Amino acid sequence: MPDPAPPVLAQIAFQLPAAPDPTLDGPGLGGSGSDGPGLAESVPDVAGAGFAVSARAALAALARCAGFRSGRLARALDAPGTWLLTTEWDGPGAWRRALSSFDVRCTLTPLLVHAVDAPGSFEVLAEVTVLAEVTVPAEVTVPGAAGLEPGRSSRVYRSDRAADADVAAPGLGLDR
Q1: What pairs with residue 153 in β-bridges?
Q2: How far is CA 92 from the centre of its chain?
Q3: Which of 61, 51, 163 is nearest to 104 (CA)?
Q4: 15 three-state secondary structure
Q5: Positions of the region Disordered (predicted)?
Q6: Is 89 inside any structural domain?
């Protein structure tokens, strides 16, 4: 039986603009007289709540696309203006086709003004999951599961990247 194709994780990080703290005033302190970034800046809950509603709509649109496996919307615990939309796909083609879906373009594009410029697609090479209940006879050994607690499983994927993917370029054959 062939190994399953590794999933692809697609992530988009968002940084909402900080609003100056109205309780502080004066130059550089974030108040109305501010001429620069404030010392105490925060994202208003109203803006964060509006973003969350829009991001959930984008996640729902992505979930309706072929090849979608799972998705999550998360907010940073220590930086409430930082959000992360993470989705898992059958492969890079499914993710790219999903981005061209009309519904996804209508819901996700307005959020991209807050997107952070960073790599966004990742090939999964290993994973550990929690299982609801595992019933495995004692004589059965599971490769790669050594040292795992009961109720957990692990899987290691083979990379689909070509061995020369980071060094090959058009016109530069490796046979020279």
Answers
A1: 129
A2: 14
A3: 61
A4: strand
A5: 21-40
A6: yes
